[in-house]
Amino acid sequence: MLGLGHDVVDVPAFAKQLNEPGTRMRNLFSMREIWQTAQRSQLKHDDEAVHLAARWAGKEAFLKAAGTGLREPFSLCEIEAVRLPGGAPAYHFSGRSAKWVEARRLRAHLSLSHEDGMAMAYCILETET
Question: Are strands 3-10 and 106-115 parallel, antiparallel or unpaired?
């Protein structure tokens, strides 16, 4: 294992920020993340903020596992917390973020959860063998 990251998000506070007039918060998510969140929210009959908060926690957990924080070369839109066809959460990287991960031969594992107004994520980074 190379790194471990964890993040917890207060969903009501996140929802307030997400829905604030003039906010650009949604711009920090990819179109795929927005689309998958809308689909999941409809399926589970709950608020999209719950699922976006978990994805946000996933992005933060990755940055902590990488040990870098949010700085070059990372862009939050390039670090996607997505669902695989079977429903498992996973990372998808693009742009300079993908190049950083590939150059270090890393594999990122993601776990997401939410309950009682909190969303959380764990990221485990390991070197590919």
Answer: unpaired
Distances (CA, A) of 66 to 4, 50, 63, 73, 113: 8, 25, 5, 12, 21
pLDDT in tens, 72-101: 778 889 999 999 999 899 999 999 999 999
The per-residue pLDDT for range 12-23, each reduced to its tens digit, is: 999 999 989 998
Segment (H or E) for 120 = strand 118-127
| CA-closest candidate to residue 29, choices 12, 49, 5, 43 | 49
Tokens of 19: 């829905």
Which residues lie below 8 Å from residue 100, measured CB to CB, with a gap of 6+?
66, 73, 74, 93
Rounded to two decimals, the pTM is 0.90
Measured CA to CA, the distance from residue 34 to residue 16 in angstroms comes to: 17
Q: Which amino acid is at 73?
A: P
